[in-house]
Design goal:
By secondary structure, the chain is of the alpha/beta class. The chain contains eight helices and twelve strands. It has helices spanning 5-22, 57-66, 86-96, 116-134, 150-158, 178-190, 205-221, 229-233; strands spanning 2-3, 35-36, 44-52, 72-75, 100-103, 136-138, 140-141, 162-164, 168-169, 195-201, 225-227, 238-242.
Length: 253
């Protein structure tokens, strides 16, 4: 269903305003958001990419699209670079190509060290940016470093989002060489899993130019379908979808 950007923006803002003050730390009434660490659909692989938007995004997207595949990009608002301006164009490009966009929070802080209000701020600011740039309100959030606690899950539930972790880490962000990352994938594929939810980082040049093209071929040769996270789970990628907003003076970090 499509809504106007203004309506979605107002509803999301109202959610933040009403939710944050009414659920103090330690309150048990708020349910916990779902946490997904693996796909559920057989013969699917979700290649996911953290820490963007970044310059290598175009090459990753082109490799995926050329193979008839899709990826999932967990973007920050102001980590390596600000999400607006040229990066806003990159985000819109990904969205228009059919990849899934999801939240990796605003500034890549460890959410388990933050207060209730601070967690909501980290989440809301990147959601706001995605709403402005694409008109889509994400249904998934990946906590930085994969760290979360009950307070983070409660905040995510209030925001209508599920948490997304992984069951395969290419270890590119930990300094793994190309050969080491390839071995991680090769060893995993050799076990013939029903599905894979893989963590990669679009900020790593070797991931974009050496790992992604290689692993696409490896996975497809084994009969896996490369899909978005939402597709590998059989759920919606976004809570709502509308038309993007027009850039104005608020488009800054």
């Amino acid at each position: 269903m499509k809504f106007t950007f203004a309506a979605i923006f107002a509803a999301a803002a109202a959610c933040l305003v009403s939710a944050a003050p009414s659920h103090p730390i330690g309150q048990r009434a708020t349910p916990l958001a779902k946490v997904y660490s693996s796909c559920t659909k057989n013969n699917t692989v979700a290649l996911t990419f953290d820490d963007g938007p970044y310059v290598y995004m175009y090459d990753i997207s082109k490799a995926l699209v050329a193979a008839g595949a899709k990826g999932t990009f967990f973007v920050n608002g102001n980590n390596y670079e600000c999400i607006y301006n040229d990066n806003g164009k990159r985000v819109k490009y990904l969205y228009d190509k059919g990849h899934q966009l999801a939240s990796h929070t605003w500034a890549h802080k460890d959410l388990t060290t933050l207060t209730w209000d601070q967690i909501h701020d980290e989440m809301w600011r990147v959601e706001e940016a995605l709403l402005k740039i694409t008109g889509a309100y994400p249904a998934f959030m990946r906590p930085p470093y994969g760290n979360y606690n009950d307070l983070v899950r409660q905040a995510s539930y209030v925001r209508g989002q599920s948490l997304a972790i992984w069951d395969l880490d290419s270890e590119d962000s930990l300094g793994a060489t190309v050969a080491q990352s390839k071995k991680i994938y090769t060893d995993a594929i050799a076990k013939k899993p029903k599905n894979i939810l893989a963590l990669n980082h679009e900020t790593i040049e070797t991931t974009a130019h050496q790992i992604v093209p290689w692993v696409i071929a490896q996975l497809q040769n084994k009969g896996y379908k490369l899909v978005t996270l939402a597709e590998c789970l059989g759920v919606d990628a976004y809570q709502s979808v509308a038309s993007p907003a027009t850039p104005d003076s608020t488009w800054h970090c």
